């Protein structure tokens, strides 16, 4: 018994140390790699770019309002955090250590999530296939050694903080501490805004997994309490930011406002930028609302339909956000893939895993090439890059819809045991 | 206690009997999936609802907010009024003061009166009105202002002569002393002389203003008669030549040469000397900025030595000469001196051989100079500068005749008129535009601009001749232009409605197709459900019900298992329980006691739970109609069960013959159950739907189930009896190994359907009905329980049904037992009811009131009294006939 514990402990340490070491090597052996990756549009978006953060940091350290200049659009509380670190030009290693630690923390949260077994057996639903679930270590390793995660870490995109906060929120909700989950999701929402949409399924998850000691029976009472915690936490963070940016609320317009109005049209892997370059000006406001509502609309429906499996709702929503949010990057994809790894027991009933993975690889290789053709070589135009981002989004939405299908089929087979293994047709 | 058998009357809960029921009634077909669960349907409704809530609560307001065209309210009527000239009558009262220091006061007054008369008589243009007044004596010569347009200085002299002062707006008139009118005379040569002079002085201004008014739409009623076509043509030429009004002009003085020389000029000095003084005078009307340039090696557009009229238009080398079109917002006036020896071929049109004016652009002056001269001196520049000055005045639209001060004051008035007209016509265009294009957006600042324009127009109109008038007209014109050329308004012009469809359809279509489809499917389902409900309500009469599973029990009489008990004569009783929401179910103790009494009497007993009671499905209804249906279902079940049940094996031995007396089927009820019993249709109507029901209908299932259960029970009872006969233990009384799963998995397959209907049971004997009502409900409480206080649309139909129901009580043996102390029903009501029913001819209805008994029969001795009555009643029926 004890040997297996030490074995797993050893292998855990091994995986984490290996991931850390790999990142150290990448940081140390290729000093130009971080800056190269930081400049890639696939990794750095206007709201997560490390380069823009440096700009804001410079202004902040020189007592200028950091949003002057219209380059920096990130949450103000990142500034004091990074100004604590030594200058990144002279001591890049400290920044690297911070990012590596955040990645390891995310992996740890994933480990907790996977080991809870929620993916296969929730309070209201037990999957007949749960025996085949993947071990936590495997899930953590898949996240840590995922090239997308690696690139995000080396590119020092600030979305790693958001991802870490989201994963911790889920992990805490699973371990029966709704308060910590709400604090974590508040941090995520504060940093990137969109995670606030994960609140409903997260509250359901926390409700299902309450510890017996401090159980609140009424779902309404529980959700009021948790939403209250989250809103107090977010207001606290916003008030701190208010004080930090010279007692003005203008930072709201420069951070969340940018995401809401998409005023920075720098290309990214998402679907918004090209559309809003082309749309007639008089319809811009309307379609901004449509695109945002498109993100919002899934939350309620999925939470109701998959009420028995809130973790699946969270996973599917993360996938949807990675495709349809205003400034997506491969960091969001890496988070979704990490969550997808939890559902290994459903892989046999997923139908398009091969097509989706092949498409994803295709887009991964052709994306940078087309971007190069457009921007540097000048032998292609914006349509080249937009087309490949469409393919990329297609691959992800294939994964999302396939996972949704698999989750639903799994539920359905519990109801109709005679249909297990039979071919079915989706109408 | 008798053996208890529990049997759910199971029927599928789906609302579509046509496709799902056969699957359960016959062998389940593998191709059809089981019906959706209720919870799944509900969940789907919520999902559709959640999507539509987002669309309706967030999407629609956003759509409205972001695509609504903002149309500020414009005062269209008054705008059009301005444009039509109805809002303002342009009037120019001109003050002319007369200084007649040499005359006596009275003489002067008289002179002025006469002159004014003469002027008024001659005046043909009412808007342009000259008013004379006597200046105070020894007043200084007035400065140029708009208050007094002209001052006339009268001086005695030898002959009549008049001369305009070049320095200020003063007309000097000398007169011979004898021309002064006497105090009494009514005409005077001096007066008519002054009149003529004044008319001559203001003739040009008058004609220009009347021309302006006539070309604008404001001309109503002010069309001057005196304007000849030729004069109008000259005036129109002049107006097109002059620049549009602007508060500021840029003057650009350029020296061009096709060689390298001359390369310097004394422009500063020349400007100071010749141009600046004039600009100073013009300052109240315009501001000017000046810049100068020298361009060497500038080749003109035309090279020929003598330029004729055609050449002039292409002389300016617009492609190469750096003549900036305008600096900032203000228009530029160009003055070009070209050094060269070209001359202009003289003809009638051009004024000099050296220069020409380009309308709305400026002037070109050809200056010839020796080739070697490298400097242009002030003296050389004098002539060009004077020419430029004159041209500038005409470019600005100054009248040509009269002294400079007079011309300038006239210019002010002309400009005011012009601006007023322009602003008014812009307002009119804006009003017409907003009327013609209902989809154009009108931002708030346009409305602001319009109201500002109107305000300033009113002010300008009030003081048209004065300096304030010019100022306000200027602001009004500026605001009107700004409002008319508002950028966002113009942008909307190019976005017609067709484009909107092109934008909405491809982008919103993919989102809305699933949303709308989901909504349609949900609505369809709800409509279907409602229809089904309505159908069920209609089928009420046929007693076919919605398949809610009912929980029921059948108690066999003792004689099945024990020798010596009262023999079973195929009689049966069905007992209905009190109101479920108040705790009623087939376990009700009082009902149990009464029913047991009947069973002991040799009746087979059947009890059941109404919907919503005990383990039965559904909810207690408001109308009691579904409960009535439950009762009929169970009666149907019992009738067929009884028919098929054959515990003693008599059936085989002696098939039922015509002579056999039909057994009794007593329908009993306590409290609410009694009320339902009262409402039951007559027995033949109750059993009619079961005689030949559609395959797969609920009635068919009930019948099949009753029959199969009767078979099984027959077997079980016979076995038990056989075992008993073999002297074995009696424990098998508690047979009936009935678990619900077994039941549902063994669907009855008997009675092969013929043409989709079950054939009628051969030899089926309709039992004799009898009714037993314990503590029946009457009056208000019935209405409460059935909600029939509400005026119903079926009110017309109701009396017949109720009559039927009551008639059955009269025609068949009926016993009603009630206490006189019932808390639910006033005993008076019951007495009246009993009286009404029992008094009918041939009535078999009997009512018994038991003294001091309450609704629950808990009082001392009343229960026994009631049971005695029941036993008596049942016993009579048992033995009878």
TrEMBL record, chain A:
One GO BP: GPI anchor biosynthetic process
Keyword Transmembrane helix: yes
Coiled-coil annotated residue ranges, if any: none
Origin superkingdom: Eukaryota
Membrane-topology descriptor: Multi-pass membrane protein
A Pfam family this chain is assigned to: PIG-U
Residues annotated as signal peptide: none
One Gene Ontology cellular component: GPI-anchor transamidase complex
Keywords: Endoplasmic reticulum, GPI-anchor biosynthesis, Membrane, Transmembrane, Transmembrane helix
Cytoplasm is among the record's keywords: no
Annotated TM spans: 12-30, 91-114, 135-161, 181-207, 227-246, 271-299, 306-324, 354-377, 383-408
UniProt-annotated location(s): Endoplasmic reticulum membrane
Biochemical pathway: Glycolipid biosynthesis; glycosylphosphatidylinositol-anchor biosynthesis
InterPro entries (alphabetical): PIG-U (IPR009600)
Family, as annotated: Belongs to the PIGU family.
Name the record gives this protein: Phosphatidylinositol glycan, class U
TrEMBL record, chain B:
Keyword Membrane attributed: yes
PANTHER family tied to this protein: GPI TRANSAMIDASE COMPONENT PIG-S
Membrane topology annotation: Multi-pass membrane protein
Keyword annotations: Endoplasmic reticulum, Glycoprotein, GPI-anchor biosynthesis, Membrane, Transmembrane, Transmembrane helix
UniProt record, GO biological process: attachment of GPI anchor to protein; GPI anchor biosynthetic process
Location(s) in or outside the cell: Endoplasmic reticulum membrane
Species per Swiss-Prot/TrEMBL record: Trichoderma gamsii
GO cellular component: GPI-anchor transamidase complex
Official protein name in the record: Phosphatidylinositol-glycan biosynthesis class S protein
Stretch forming the signal peptide: none
Residues annotated as transmembrane: 46-64
Gene3D superfamilies: alpha/beta hydrolase (3.40.50.1820)
Family stated for the protein in its record: Belongs to the PIGS family.
Region entry Disordered, spans: 1-37, 715-758
Taxonomy, superkingdom: Eukaryota
Pathway participation: Glycolipid biosynthesis; glycosylphosphatidylinositol-anchor biosynthesis
Low complexity compositional bias, start-end: 11-29, 734-748
Keyword Chloroplast annotated: no
């Amino acid at each position: 018994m004890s040997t297996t514990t030490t074995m797993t402990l050893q292998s855990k340490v091994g995986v984490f140390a290996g991931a850390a070491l790999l990142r150290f090597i990448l940081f140390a052996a290729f000093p130009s790699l971080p800056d190269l990756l930081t400049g890639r549009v696939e990794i750095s978006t206007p709201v997560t770019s490390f380069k823009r953060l440096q700009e804001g940091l410079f202004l902040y350290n020189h007592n200028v309002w950091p949003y002057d200049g219209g380059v920096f659009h990130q949450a103000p509380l990142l500034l004091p955090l990074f100004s604590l670190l030594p200058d990144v030009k002279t001591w890049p290693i400290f920044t690297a250590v911070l990012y590596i630690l955040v990645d390891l923390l995310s992996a740890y949260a994933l480990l907790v999530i996977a080991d809870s077994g929620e993916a296969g057996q929730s309070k209201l639903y037990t999957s007949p296939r749960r025996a085949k679930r993947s071990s936590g270590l495997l899930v953590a390793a898949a996240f840590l050694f995922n090239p997308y995660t690696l690139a995000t870490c080396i590119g020092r995109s600030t979305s790693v903080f958001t991802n870490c906060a989201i994963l911790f929120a889920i992990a805490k909700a699973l371990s029966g501490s709704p308060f910590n989950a709400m604090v974590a999701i508040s941090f995520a929402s504060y940093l990137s805004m969109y995670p606030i949409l994960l609140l409903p399924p997260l509250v359901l998850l926390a409700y299902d997994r309450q510890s017996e000691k401090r159980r609140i029976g009424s779902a309404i009472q529980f959700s009021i309490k948790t939403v209250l915690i989250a809103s107090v936490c977010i207001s606290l963070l916003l008030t701190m930011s208010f004080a930090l940016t010279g007692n003005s609320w203008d930072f709201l317009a420069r951070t969340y406002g940018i995401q809401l109005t998409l005023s920075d049209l720098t290309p990214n892997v998402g679907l918004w930028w090209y559309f809003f370059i082309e749309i007639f000006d008089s319809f811009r406001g309307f379609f901004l609302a449509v695109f945002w509502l498109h993100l919002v609309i899934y939350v309620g429906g999925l939470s109701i339909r998959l009420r028995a499996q809130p973790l699946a709702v969270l996973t599917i929503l993360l996938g949807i956000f990675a495709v349809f949010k205003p400034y997506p990057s491969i960091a969001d994809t890496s988070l979704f893939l990490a969550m997808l790894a939890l559902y290994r027991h459903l892989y046999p009933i997923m139908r398009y895993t091969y097509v989706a993975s092949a498409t994803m690889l295709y887009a991964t290789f052709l994306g940078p090439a087309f971007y190069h053709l457009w921007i540097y070589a000048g032998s292609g135009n914006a349509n080249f890059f937009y087309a490949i981002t469409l393919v990329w989004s297609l691959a992800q939405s294939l994964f999302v819809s396939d996972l949704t299908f698999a989750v639903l089929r799994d539920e359905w087979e519990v109801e109709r045991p005679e249909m297990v293994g039979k071919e079915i047709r989706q109408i | 206690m008798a053996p208890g058998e529990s049997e759910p009357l199971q029927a599928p809960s789906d609302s579509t009997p046509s496709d799902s029921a056969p699957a359960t009634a016959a062998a389940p077909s593998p191709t059809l999936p089981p019906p959706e669960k209720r919870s799944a349907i509900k969940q789907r409704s919520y999902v559709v609802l959640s999507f539509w809530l987002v669309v309706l609560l967030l999407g629609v307001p956003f759509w409205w907010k972001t695509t609504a065209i903002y149309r500020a309210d414009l005062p269209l009527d008054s705008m059009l009024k301005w444009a039509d000239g109805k809002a303002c009558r342009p009037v120019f009262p001109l003050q002319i003061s007369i200084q007649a220091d040499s005359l006596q006061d009275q003489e002067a007054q008289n002179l002025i009166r006469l002159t004014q008369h003469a002027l008024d008589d001659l005046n043909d243009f009412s808007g342009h009105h000259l008013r004379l007044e006597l200046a105070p004596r020894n007043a200084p010569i007035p400065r140029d202002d708009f208050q007094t347009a002209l001052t006339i200085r009268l001086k005695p002299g030898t002959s009549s002569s008049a001369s305009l002062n070049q320095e200020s707006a003063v007309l000097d008139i000398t007169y011979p002393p004898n021309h002064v009118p006497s105090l009494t005379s009514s005409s005077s040569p001096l007066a008519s002389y002054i009149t003529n002079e004044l008319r001559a002085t203001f003739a040009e201004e008058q004609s220009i203003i009347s021309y302006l008014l006539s070309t604008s739409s404001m001309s109503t009623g002010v069309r001057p008669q005196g304007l000849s076509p030729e004069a109008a043509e000259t005036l129109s030429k002049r107006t097109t030549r002059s620049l549009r009004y602007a508060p500021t002009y840029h003057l650009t003085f350029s020296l061009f040469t096709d060689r390298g020389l001359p390369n310097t000029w004394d422009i500063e000095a020349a400007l100071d000397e010749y141009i600046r003084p004039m600009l100073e005078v013009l300052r109240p009307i315009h501001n000017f900025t000046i810049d100068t340039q020298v361009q060497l090696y500038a080749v003109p557009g035309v090279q020929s030595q003598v330029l004729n009229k055609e050449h002039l238009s292409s002389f300016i080398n617009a492609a190469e000469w750096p003549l900036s079109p305008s600096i900032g917002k203000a228009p530029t006036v160009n003055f070009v001196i070209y050094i060269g020896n070209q001359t202009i071929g003289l003809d009638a049109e051009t004024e000099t051989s050296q220069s020409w004016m380009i309308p709305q652009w400026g002037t070109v002056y050809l200056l010839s100079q020796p080739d070697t001269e490298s400097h242009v001196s002030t003296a050389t520049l004098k002539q060009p500068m004077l020419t430029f000055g004159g041209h500038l005045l005409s470019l600005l639209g100054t009248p040509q005749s009269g002294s400079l001060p007079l011309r300038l004051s006239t210019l002010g008035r002309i400009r005011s008129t012009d601006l007023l007209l322009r602003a008014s016509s812009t307002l009119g265009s804006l009003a017409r535009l907003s009327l013609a294009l209902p989809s154009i957006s009108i931002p708030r600042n346009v409305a602001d601009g319009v109201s500002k324009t109107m305000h300033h127009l009113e002010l300008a109109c009030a003081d048209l001749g004065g300096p304030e008038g010019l100022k306000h007209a200027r602001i009004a014109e500026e605001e009107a232009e700004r409002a008319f050329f508002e950028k966002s308004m113009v942008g909307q012009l190019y976005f017609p409605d067709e484009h909107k469809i092109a934008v909405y359809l491809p982008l919103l279509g993919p989102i809305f197709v699933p949303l709308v489809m989901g909504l349609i499917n949900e609505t369809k389902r709800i409509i279907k459900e409602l229809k089904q409900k309505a159908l069920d309500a209609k089928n009420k009469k046929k007693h076919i019900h919605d398949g809610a599973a009912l929980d029921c029990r059948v108690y066999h009489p003792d004689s099945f298992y024990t020798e010596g008990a009262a023999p079973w004569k195929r009689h049966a009783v069905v007992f209905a329980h009190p109101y479920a929401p108040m705790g009623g179910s087939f376990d009700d103790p009082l009902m149990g006691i009464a029913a047991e009494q009947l069973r002991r009497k040799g009746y087979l007993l059947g009890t059941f739970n109404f919907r919503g009671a005990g383990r039965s499905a559904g909810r207690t209804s408001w109308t009691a109609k579904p409960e009535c249906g439950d009762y009929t279902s169970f009666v149907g079940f019992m009738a067929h069960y009884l028919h098929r049940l054959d515990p003693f094996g008599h059936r085989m031995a002696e098939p039922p013959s015509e002579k056999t007396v039909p057994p009794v089927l007593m329908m009993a009820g306590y409290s609410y159950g009694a009320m339902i019993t009262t409402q039951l249709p007559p027995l033949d109507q109750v059993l009619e739907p079961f005689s030949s029901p559609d395959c797969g209908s609920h009635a068919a299932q009930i019948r099949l189930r009753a029959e199969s259960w009767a078979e099984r029970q027959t077997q079980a009872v016979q076995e038990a009896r056989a075992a008993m006969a073999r002297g074995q233990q009696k424990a098998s009384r508690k047979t009936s190994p009935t678990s619900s799963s077994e039941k549902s998995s063994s669907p009855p397959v008997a009675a092969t359907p013929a043409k989709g209907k079950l054939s009628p049971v051969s030899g089926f004997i309709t039992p004799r009905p009898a009714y037993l009502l314990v503590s029946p409900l009457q009056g208000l409480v019935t209405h409460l329980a059935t909600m029939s206080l509400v005026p119903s649309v079926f009110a017309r139909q109701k009396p017949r049904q109720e009559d039927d129901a009551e008639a059955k009580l009269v025609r068949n043996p009926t016993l009603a037992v009630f206490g006189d102390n019932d808390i639910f029903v006033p005993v008076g009501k019951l007495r009246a009811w009993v009286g009404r029913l029992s008094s009918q001819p041939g009535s078999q209805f009997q009512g018994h009131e038991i003294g001091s008994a309450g609704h629950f029969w808990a009082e001392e001795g009343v229960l026994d009294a009631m049971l005695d009555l029941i036993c008596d009643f049942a016993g009579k029926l048992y033995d009878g006939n």
